[in-house]
Amino acid sequence: MRTKIEVRGLKKSFQSDKGPLPVVDDVSFTVGDGEFVAVVGPSGCGKTTLMNMMAGFVRPDSGAVLIDGAPRSKPNAKGILISQQGSVFPWLTVRENLMFGLNGHAGDDRMAVADHYADIVGLKGFEDSFPHELSGGMLKRTELARALAVKPEILYMDEPFSALDALMSLRMRTELLRILAEERHTTLLITHDVEEAIHLADRVVVLSPRPTRIQAVYEVPIAHPRKISSRAAQELRVTILRELGVEREVPV
Amino acid sequence: MKRIKEAWPAIALIAVLIAIWWLTVHLTHSLIFPTPWGVVTGTWELLRNGTLWEHIGASLMRVGAGFGLAVCLAVPLGLWMGWVSGAYRTLNPLFQILRPISPIAWIPIAILWFGVGDASPIYLIFISSVFPMIVQTTVGVHTIEKRYLRAAENFGVSRGTLFKQVVIPAVLPQVLVGMRIGLGVAWLVVVAAEMIALHSGLGYMIMDSRNAGNRYDLVVAGMIIIGLIGLSLDTIMRLLEGVRWIRWRYAH
After folding, report:
1. Stretch B194-205: mean pLDDT
2. For A177, phi and psi rounded to 5 degrees?
3. Which residue in the set B147, B169, B249 is minimally distant from A87, CB to CB?
4. What is the C-alpha radius of gyration for chain A, rounded to an integer number of angstroms?
5. Which of A137, A138, B38, B43 is positioned for an S-S bond with B221, CB 3.0–4.6 A?
6. How much is the ipTM here?
């Protein structure tokens, strides 16, 4: 597999009242083209900072992020970030949101692309709705469709489904897998949900508490469609939870 | 039906106040202070001879001109100050000093600069309504949620799209708040401004009624009309909350 993203020795500290607070401490890994990598870690460990550096929103103190071998310093439409809080524009309709990033296309074309992706994420019939008329799950679909519409090479997903209820979160995972089976994007998922990581990813990177480093990396050698209740998945889940230091709390 | 139900306590309160007013005038045998009925007949007299419409028209024209000029300056200036921090740092301290100066304090200078014609009250209205609108527009830009700006940055849209589809719609609800404040202040100020050396307008009408024979029935009539028109102006402004670029803010 060709290397799509190379993270090389990323370090980041933030200024606090008590001096510099190291958040990310020397993280290096690679993501292959079309690969789905999940990053799990304890809350507050610096996952989001790592993602923001990878997507170009935050400058690292040292180290570099290389996309296709070229250093990335600014965000661009080749890698779209989907965050937990979401950023669907409340003043635009679903269709206008989906058309937002489609600069280079002609007017009719943009609409066709937008409606196509609305259809893909299951928002057909809601193209003219405003975000406040949608449920949380539909908002996530809108956000996902807006990202997919610009055909990004990389999807950066920062706890994308954690604000949804358990049922909707599960449905969104299945939807995401279905979409990625159709249009393969290199995907980076940050989550605190180990089960979600195992359900979706080809590889799971486990981060240490802050200042965060890579503590372990696990392949997920289970074919799709995956059964979370399967023995292999459950064993991996326990292993990763143990790695995160919560083995005693794991219900068997 | 529901509206009537909700409005009746307010209507009852006003009715009670009018009754107390009537009773008090009767009991004190006041020769100058009018009864409510006296105010009604006074208003009728003004309506019949047409002067009331002239005065209302003159006041509204001055407010329209002063407030209109203020909007034309305040909105672009507020956007600029909100967006460019250098502009904010340069202009904001000056505006914070000018803003608390009562428009009444400007009257001598207004007369000096603009004489005793229409230009003076228009200037006073302008100076009193321009600052709240600048401040609100600037606040509007400063409080645009970062996630929306980040999304725009991520999709790499042009500056034009950024302004048209993100900044302007995000700021408009705050601009409208500023306009409601500005118009309210403008209506307060026009009456005061017209009490000086002018020969038309509701403010002049009130002063003239007193000076020309203690016609307090017309004074009170003028006050009530000012209140009702002020309420109507604000109601019209509130209708703008239904405009699609603003509605998103209130739809929850």
Report:
1. 86
2. -65, -40
3. B147
4. 18
5. B43
6. 0.88
- pLDDT tens for B134-154 read 999 999 999 999 999 999 999
Best A57, A83, A91 residue to mutate vs chain B (most B CBs within 10 Å): A91
B104-126, pLDDT tens digit by residue? 899 999 989 998 888 999 999 99
Measure in Å the smallest separation between the Cα of A228 and chain B Cα atoms: 33
Stated as kind and residue range, the H or E segment containing B67 is helix B51-83
At which residue do the structure tokens 């002018």 appear? B198
Bridge partners, residue A80, by sequence:
A155
pLDDT score at A247: 66
Query: What are the structural domains of chain B?
Result: 54-250 (1.10.3720.10)
CA A99 to chain centre: 21
Identity of the residue in A57, A77, A132 whose CB atom sits nearest the CB atom of B150? A57
- The burial class, CB within 10 Å (0-12 / 13-18 / 19+), for B53 is exposed
Q: Which chain A residue shows the shortest CA-CA distance from B152? A: A101
Q: List, in order, residues 6 or more apart from A220 with CB less than 8 Å away.
A: A198, A201, A202, A203, A204, A226, A236
pTM: 0.83
Task: Provide the CATH topology of domain A3-78+153-249.
Answer: Rossmann fold (3.40.50)
Partner residue opposite A85 with nearest CB, options B147, B153, B170: B147
Task: Tell me the residue type at A116.
Answer: H
Q: How many CB atoms lie within 10 A of CB B105?
A: 10
The residue type at A28: S
Picking from A224, A213, A116, the residue whose alpha carbon sits closest to that of residue A173 is A224
Contact B157 A100 (CB under 8 A): yes
Which of A89, A113, A130, A148 best tests the B interface by mutation, with the highest count of B CBs <10 A? A89
A90/B contact by beta carbon, under 8 A: yes
* Cβ within 8 Å, pair A83-B251: no
CA distance B23 to B1: 32
Return the residue matching tokens 């510099």. Answer: A20
Give all strands (DSSP E) within chain B, no chain letters.
Answer: none
